[in-house]
Amino acid sequence: MAQQTPLHATHVAAGARMVDFAGWDMPVNYGSQIEEHKAVRTDAGMFDVSHMLGLDLQGSGAKAFLRGLIANDVAKLQEAGKALYSCMLNPEGGVIDDLIVYFLSDTEYRIVVNAGTADKDVAWMQERLAASGLEATLTVRRDLAMIAVQGPNARAKTWAALPGTEAASAGLKPFQAAIVGEYFIARTGYTGEDGFELTLPAGEAATTWAALTAAGVAPCGLGARDTLRLEAGMALYGNDMDETVSPLDAGLAWTVDFKDETRDFVGKAALQAQGTRQQTLGLILEDKGVLRSHQPVHTAQGVGETTSGTFSPTLQKSIALARLPLGVAAGDQVEVEIRGKRLKARVVKAPFARHGKALV
Amino acid sequence: MSNIPAELRYTTSHEWVRVEADGTLTVGVTDHAQQALGDVVFLELPEAGRVVEAGESVAVIESVKAASDIYAPVAGEVIANNEEAVNAPEGVNEDAYGAWLFKIKPADANAVNGLLDAAGYEAAI
């Protein structure tokens, strides 16, 4: 039996098409997925992301523990509420999960991890924590719901829907969060648009969702979430990277922080030994068709593979992220093999679209 | 929920079939199928002259979400495909029974009687 978020009944009542996603019964679309996508690019849409897991890490050893656990460096977080995107690696340099860490203080962090990896993440963190001897406690927060409100009008509509939130959240910079009563409001997202990710008590999810709907925020499913993140050039765990892929090869080198030479983190030695072996770039299909994951990409430098592909509602063309041999560059012509046929594609630097505009 | 016209025949793989006056068959995908697929953005249809077996994968329909095969409902020869649908694939969402995909001249004129009727299809979905 698939797990249900606190908003499950709300989605079913709204006529959403429900699908299994990482063991959760989730809305993939309510009506047209393309219309939901457009709502986020041009106005405001919202996603139930309560299947993702919030974790609280508290204790005098919290900062030292995270500095050794993840590939990005939490030491660069100075301002309360500041967020950091990072990969959590295994000793071989493969990605166990990608996550967001919010800095509340040197002894208190909120971490958000993916749904499909949540159990293994918690087990891995607990195991590492026990082995570290550091003083910190990891608390699983399944009592929370999460709603991502995204789009150029997302913040204004959130303030209209949730009185009392504007004063505390209007000054937030991108990738920064504030605690407002029982709400945790972060100016983050996974769409390439402005907006908030709201974390709130599960019992308040349905009334909050209804208030946002009344304020003109369009309910959007995981289908639109995927086309939006892919246009924004954002990686999806399980597609674009997994435990066998290094963040350096997955286009996530910018999230791996080697600056402090005295800092060790799980996977560091492996990454330094391996170096960069492949690269992740964008593709735009020039022939007709739709790119999907795991299609071979033929380049002058050898064969690569698409890791995520879809139809881009903004570009009205098919796009993909692909892991390609070193030496391939933006502007190159390549061929993608789809059902035995080779179709022409152009290599580009992702993102494809953000802030309502095509970028390629 | 979905629209299942009584005058058409159906397959369990969600194609609809209309028997024309000259005995040829017009094939498309059902309203139920287009709802499940979501926004259709690409169609790859068989060329006229292709000889197909019943149940053979002959076309591909791609929505934003996924690619799905379309199967020949009966054996025969493809005699036309709908270029208008190829150029405007969203027509499948707007009118699943108007946006036909291809026409078949059946090898056996009686084969269509082996397909589901509307009640049979409704029971199958």
Topology:
The complex is a heterodimer of chains A (360) and B (125).
Chain A: H1 8-13, E1 17-21, E2 24-29, H2 33-42, E3 45-48, E4 53-58, H3 62-69, E5 83-89, E6 95-105, E7 108-113, H4 118-132, E8 137-140, E9 144-150, H5 154-161, H6 166-169, E10 177-180, E11 183-186, E12 195-201, H7 205-214, E13 218-219, H8 222-231, H9 268-274, E14 278-285, E15 296-299, E16 302-312, E17 317-325, E18 333-338, E19 341-348, E20 353-354, E21 357-358
Parallel strand pairs in A: 3-13
Antiparallel strand pairs in A: 1-2, 3-9, 4-7, 4-8, 5-6, 6-7, 9-12, 10-11, 11-12, 14-17, 14-19, 15-16, 15-18, 16-17, 18-19, 20-21
Helix pairs in contact in A: 2-8, 5-7
Chain B: E1 9-10, E2 15-19, E3 25-29, H1 31-37, E4 40-44, E5 51-52, E6 57-63, E7 67-71, E8 76-81, H2 83-87, H3 91-94, E9 102-106, H4 118-124
Antiparallel strand pairs in B: 1-2, 2-3, 3-9, 4-6, 5-8, 6-7, 8-9
Can you give keywords for this protein?
heterodimer; A: 360 residues; alpha+beta; Elongation Factor Tu (Ef-tu), domain 3; 6-stranded mixed β-sheet; 6-stranded antiparallel beta barrel; 9 helices; 22% helix; 34% strand; globular; B: 125 residues; OB fold (Dihydrolipoamide Acetyltransferase, E2P); 6-stranded antiparallel β-sheet; 3-stranded antiparallel β-sheet; 4 helices; 18% helix
